[in-house]
Design goal:
The complex is a heterotrimer.
Chain A: E1 11-17, E2 20-26, E3 29-31, E4 34-37, E5 43-46, E6 49-55, H1 57-78, H2 84-96, E7 105-112, E8 119-124, E9 130-131, E10 136-140, H3 143-153, H4 160-175, E11 185-191, E12 195-200
Antiparallel strand pairs in A: 1-2, 1-10, 2-11, 3-4, 5-6, 6-7, 7-8, 8-9, 11-12
Chain B: H1 13-16, H2 21-24, E1 39-41, E2 44-49, E3 52-58, E4 61-63, E5 66-69, E6 75-77, E7 82-89, H3 90-108, H4 122-138, E8 145-153, E9 156-163, E10 168-169, E11 173-175, H5 178-182, H6 184-190, H7 194-197, H8 202-219, E12 226-233, E13 237-245
Antiparallel strand pairs in B: 1-4, 1-7, 2-3, 2-11, 3-12, 4-5, 6-7, 7-8, 8-9, 9-10, 12-13
Helix pairs in contact in B: 6-8
Chain C: E1 2-5, E2 14-17, E3 31-36, E4 40-46, E5 49-51, E6 54-57, E7 63-65, E8 71-76, H1 78-98, H2 106-118, E9 127-134, E10 140-145, E11 151-154, E12 156-160, H3 163-173, H4 197-214, E13 221-228, E14 231-238
Antiparallel strand pairs in C: 1-2, 3-4, 3-12, 4-13, 5-6, 7-8, 8-9, 9-10, 10-11, 13-14
Helix pairs in contact in C: 1-2, 3-4
């Protein structure tokens, strides 16, 4: 367990619904088997674009700041917020820049394009390969479990409240089968004009 | 007192018995068994058809990249309705050949039913071989081979595989080694499924096997042009064709190949 | 066979012999699961057998009806799996011979299998084993084992290559984990209840189509063995072959 991407533990998942997207993460930060914090959120936002970062905690924090810096400069230059599609390319090139000494993270982008109103999600590997999915993306130490849950629970065209239930059940049951994920969860339901953030009550073992 | 200076300071034989010299003289290495194949035979390929099975293997025995022996027979008939095809280490193959001869001798000796109700069936031969292979691997002293047993049992085609690990499986088409990568996709175009077997004639099955031996000769560097082919047919019985050659090759493309070697373009 | 082991990251060039040893194990992929109902139990397994990226067979059953209403499957290294099944079937035969054809109870079968596995503690059978049937009260029962014989009884369990994909789904849909009564605001758990055979088969098929979609070593076919008081029944469903 000296693999950098599974020292701290944690997961992120995102799903597409009807005119909405959802992104969720657990709240655990650990040092191998030792739980260190139960308030370590892995989802950040830059304007209306949401970014989930699972993996090595130091890189999660560092990258979230790198993207704050880069999106601020983007806003200064372009005089508008960055769109999810554009941000996805930014994440990819930022990660590939460090191709031979990478950040050990599994990023997930979610958001709704403010111009077209199209829901958008994307996932990446640690060196920036883009996985543009039309249904769901998963990442983190319980990714196998999340794949199993999402593949069986997900259906296209869910309304925001049903999407919330689906992503929550997927996350909850996945992290309960991973020893280094869990300890609380946060879910964002994103629609064109509203973002709802909920904390989930979870098992504490 | 013992006046031999080499015995001074050593535990006395009177108290401890003779010193076990084997310990001091032991090899610095652990006991070693077969750790790698030496002379090897390449792929065996096989498939079922409506009335039986076909199996083929070439006649080459390779010593690394040296084409060391070119008249090695790797298909062994066992009784009247079984053929065993063996790839991998040739000396281990010859040991298996001896074992197969031995079970036939044992079965036939003083047995008036040996040609009928007590004849060796393919499943018996396979069960025996798979137990030999699994037991040898469990002693960490494997026979370095992959084996296909083909035949007819109770009027139906029989085809099974076992290798040096004792891993066994069966399927309407089987191949060992490179054949599993290059030939099996071609054979599966004919018999993808157990239900395809009864729709496949001996002619189309034989054509697929011959075509596969050609593809293997094209791309497997440890293969030879000369090969043997055996058919176990429900009506015709065992048909053993030796000394066959890969025919109808198209080497026209070869002159256009560039970039693999050092030739000037 | 001494040779130089070094890379740009090491400070000194080390000269150690590279040891090469015969590896007696391989991974033949596949996945299995067991679910216990009120008066029945099932074990399901895919029928694909693999080594590395090759599909050895698209139909190589690995769930067996061993008699006495005992379903058995050992998933992992298939040579060990087959050997274990044979040893258990043999053990069952001797039990009948020694005890006047007395039926072997599932919990005794479980204890027996623990000893078969632990007997090879220092050269283990590389398999995840699941058995299923009915307990002494006629209720569905499933037992699962690790490679060296630790075992427990459970309502449902997944094993093999796709276990981590299937298991949380089973927790959720069979044991109703993380499900609460609507309107109770997470204070009242959804009550446990037995599933019917038809519901179980639906869940099993969903579980395996998901695992097939996301795992390359799972696919081709799904074989479900169902044990009831009337005996063992088999169902087969095709899965994707890619």
């Amino acid at each position: 367990m000296s693999d950098p991407s599974s020292i701290n533990g944690g997961v992120v998942v995102a799903m597409v619904g009807k005119d909405c997207v959802a992104i969720a993460c657990d709240l655990r930060l650990g040092s191998q088997s030792l739980g260190v914090a139960n308030n370590f959120e892995k989802i950040f936002h830059y304007g209306h674009v949401f970014l989930g970062l699972s993996g090595l905690a130091t890189d999660v924090t560092t990258l979230s700041e790198v993207f704050r810096y880069k999106t601020n400069l983007y806003k200064l230059k372009e005089e508008r917020h960055i769109e999810p599609e554009t941000f996805t390319q930014l994440v990819s090139s930022t990660l590939y820049e460090k191709r031979f000494g990478p950040y050990f993270t599994g990023p997930v982008v979610a958001g709704i394009n403010s111009k077209t109103g199209k829901p958008y999600i994307a996932g990446f590997d640690l060196i920036g390969c883009i996985d543009e999915a039309k249904d769901f993306v998963v990442s983190g130490t319980a990714s196998d479990q999340l794949f199993g849950m999402c593949e069986s629970l997900y259906e296209p065209g869910l309304e925001p409240e049903d999407l919330f239930e689906t992503i929550s059940q997927a996350l909850l049951n996945a992290v309960d089968r991973d020893a280094i994920s869990g300890w609380g969860a946060a879910v964002y339901i994103i629609t064109k004009d509203k973002v709802v953030k909920r904390y989930l009550k979870t098992r504490q073992d | 007192m013992n006046h031999d200076p080499f015995q001074w300071g050593r535990p006395s034989d009177a108290h401890y018995g003779n010193y076990n010299k084997k310990i001091a003289e032991a090899s610095p290495y652990p006991k070693m068994n077969t750790q790698q194949p030496i002379v090897t035979g390449t792929s065996v390929i096989s498939m079922k058809y409506d009335n039986g099975v076909i199996i083929a293997a070439d006649n080459l025995g390779s010593y690394g990249s040296l084409l060391r022996f070119n008249d090695i027979e790797r298909l062994f008939p066992v009784g009247k309705n079984t053929v065993v095809g063996i790839s991998g280490d040739i000396s281990d193959m010859q040991h298996l050949e001896y074992l197969l001869e031995d079970i036939q001798t044992e079965n036939n000796y003083d047995n008036q039913y040996a040609n009928e109700e007590e004849a060796l069936k393919p499943s018996y031969v396979f069960e025996y071989l798979s137990n030999v292979m699994y037991n040898r691997r469990s002693k960490m002293n494997p026979l370095w081979n992959a084996i296909i047993v083909a035949g007819i049992e109770d009027g139906k085609p029989f085809l099974s595989y076992v290798n040096l690990l004792g891993v066994t499986y069966s399927s309407p088409s089987l191949a060992t080694g490179f054949g599993a990568h290059l030939a099996l996709p071609l054979l599966r175009k004919v018999v993808d499924d157990e239900s395809d077997v009864e729709k496949t004639s001996i002619e189309s099955a034989k054509a697929a096997i011959i075509e596969s031996m050609k593809v293997l000769f094209y791309r497997d560097a440890r293969s030879s042009r000369k090969y043997s082919l055996a058919i176990v047919d429900k009506d015709e019985g065992l048909i053993f064709e030796k000394g066959l050659q890969v025919e109808n090759m198209a080497w026209g493309f070869a002159k256009d190949i560039r970039g693999y070697g050092t030739q000037k373009v | 066979m001494a040779s130089t082991v070094a890379s740009e990251y090491s400070n000194e060039v080390k000269n150690v012999p590279i040891e090469h040893q015969f590896n007696p194990y391989s991974d033949n992929g596949g996945t299995i699961l067991g679910i216990a109902g009120e008066d029945f139990a099932v074990i399901a397994g895919d029928t694909r057998n693999t080594t590395d990226y090759s599909i050895n067979s698209r139909y190589q059953p690995k769930v067996f009806d061993c008699g006495d209403n005992i379903l058995f499957s050992a998933n992992g290294f298939s040579a060990d799996g087959d050997a274990l099944v044979k040893r258990f079937q043999n053990s069952l035969k001797w039990y009948h011979f020694d005890h006047n054809d007395k039926k072997l109870s599932l919990k005794s079968a479980a204890r027996n299998i623990q000893h078969l596995l632990y007997g090879k503690r220092f050269f283990p059978y590389y398999v995840h084993t699941i058995i299923a049937g009915l307990d002494e009260e006629g209720k569905g029962a499933v037992f699962s084992f690790d490679p060296v014989g630790s075992y427990e009884r459970s309502q449902c369990i997944a094993g093999g290559a796709g276990a981590s994909i299937i298991m949380p789904f089973l927790d959720n849909q069979v044991d109703f984990k993380n499900q609460y009564v609507p309107g109770s605001h997470g204070t009242e758990r959804r009550k446990a209840q037995y599933l019917t055979v038809d519901e179980v088969i639906k869940l099993v098929r969903d579980a395996f189509t998901s695992a097939t979609e996301r795992h390359i070593h799972v696919g081709d076919g799904l074989e479900i063995l169902i044990a009831t008081k009337d005996g063992v029944r088999t169902e087969y469903f095709p899965l994707k072959r890619d």
